[in-house]
Amino acid sequence: MTAASDPAVSDVVDLRTTPGAVEIDRDALRVAGPDAVDYLQGQLSQDVAALAVGATAWSFVLQPAGKVDAWLRVTRTGDDALVLDVDGGHGEAVVARLRRFLLRTKADVDALAWRCIAVRGPGAGEATSGAAAEVAAPAGWPGVEGVDLLGPQVQAPDGVAVVGRPAYDSLRVRCGVPLMGAELSEATIPAEMGQWVIDQAVSFTKGCFTGQELVARIDSRGGNVPRRLRGLVVTGDRAPAVGAAVVVDGAEVGQVASVAPRPGGGSVALAIVRRGVSPPAVAQVGVAGGELAATVVDLPIES
What we know:
Structural class: alpha+beta
Number of helices: 6
Largest sheet: 6 strands, antiparallel, barrel
CATH superfamily of the domain at 20-160: Aminomethyltransferase beta-barrel domains
Number of strands: 15
Order of helices and strands: EEHEEEHEEHEEHHHEEEEEE
CATH topology of the domain at 20-160: Alpha-Beta Plaits
Helix content: 10-25%
């Protein structure tokens, strides 16, 4: 959730049922050159070489020990050119990380001064067809149609209402889509984000990539990890703060990572919760001067 969002807003547009467009903060960079595809094939968890020109996929950039440097999207824009986009504020770190291992590789990694318009809801694909954008990347969120338009001068498509950022945040949280700097950090391992993220972002058939050993080992053991990303449905007019403790049966089991308004009232949140908590589970979430009733639920949050 960004600082501009207001988790107390209760009349937020539900982008699961109503289409809308909103400008979001994403950083873009281009990797281009004769060795670009081969280089990224060894650096990203996704099978970059298998992407056709125009195709898009999610991917991790991992540390050698398997923890997350970035979760991003990669779009192949030419035989020897790809565009990567990542949550805003993290592009510079991705550029630095990818340049670090270039050595004699014939490829350049450069930041792009682009904007991003997110279109979500029924008909998003049709509404963005033919839009003036350098990249029209499928969002790929669970159960939601969506496209992100990226380029230097992208605009909301004609006929799609521009909505407030709380609507986007609400949908992201309810879909269980992690955010760099919130659910995802350098201490995160990919499997903690759940099977949907792994299925979208990791190839287990492409061969070696940086950080592969940990990802493959956890997958071979059924994906069991000590913590896992969960949803929270919070009742009442108040919303918990990011960092608030999540308590189940008197014990702290996690902390709130993102908070957003819930259409119709109340709020929803994401938290990385201990494995022993089995949804649905009755919980309390701390707020100033007290606590709120909440339920730990599986993702995506259906309500």
